[in-house]
């Protein structure tokens, strides 16, 4: 597909992208053997999304693994970009305008995945990437200060999963949910006070090449490299395909912590944040 770049920064209307970004919901698949621990999320769960309206594209943001949005205690918007080796706090999501940066790698690691911001801290996963045919190791969670990006702590989760592509924090339970590019049928749940594995969440629709996850209002949104976004309703494990972008390129970790879905895509021309407004 031939593809032009459009940016809200330059005032391009969202409808300009409509022909490039088909949206729509797939068939609902019921969950089975879903952890009862999530039953209490029913009270805070929002409605299913019917589709997405394209809302623009950023400039090249020079980061290739993911984006995360957060809000500081004083209400300031925070924008984090995850690259293979670095983590950057930017003043905007439309361009990479650094306020702070940090080397994200630990000894014996060479790759950072997508991450999340939660209560003043940034969480990411790093590993020594070998591909899916050979188990990665070590695989670590790393925690950074949300303002300075100074490293605060790390934990080894190599024993619990073969690869880690992204992470989100469940705002209702406070648990960490970690995805794997190499595991299509489950997500991994950790107690972030000690980083012990608490269990897994089965995916009734198997998703190959998961690049990241994002929690919002009782759902976990799961994005894969091919530009497909799935919704998993936590309280009952029901799952739907919500968006298939049809865009040529490799998608990374999605972020849905603002009112807008923001999803990083890489191709031969650069690294771009695609923007989508949900339709309920």
Describe it for me?
The protein has 280 residues and is mostly beta strands. Helices cover 0% and strands 44% of the residues. The chain is built from no helices and 21 strands. Strands 6, 7, 8, 9 and 10 form a five-stranded antiparallel β-sheet that branches. A four-stranded antiparallel β-sheet has the order 1-21-20-19, with no helix packed on it. Strand 16 (219-224) and strand 17 (228-233) form a beta hairpin.
Continuous helix count:
0
The number of E-state strands comes to 21
Strand content: 35-45%
Shape: globular
H-E order: EEEEEEEEEEEEEEEEEEEEE
**Low-pLDDT segments:** 1-24
Global structural class: mainly beta
Any idea what the radius of gyration is? 17 Å
Average pLDDT works out at 89
Distance between the termini: 29 Å
The largest sheet, given as strand count, sense and whether it forms a barrel, is: 5 strands, antiparallel
What is the helix content?
under 10%
Condensed summary:
Helices cover 0% and strands 44% of the residues. It is mainly beta and 280 residues long.
SSE inventory with pairings:
Layout: E1 51-57, E2 66-71, E3 77-82, E4 86-90, E5 98-103, E6 111-112, E7 116-118, E8 121-127, E9 139-145, E10 151-156, E11 166-169, E12 176-179, E13 186-191, E14 196-202, E15 210-216, E16 219-224, E17 228-233, E18 239-244, E19 250-255, E20 261-267, E21 270-279
Antiparallel strand pairs: 1-21, 2-3, 3-4, 4-5, 6-8, 7-8, 8-9, 9-10, 11-12, 12-13, 13-14, 15-16, 16-17, 17-18, 19-20, 20-21
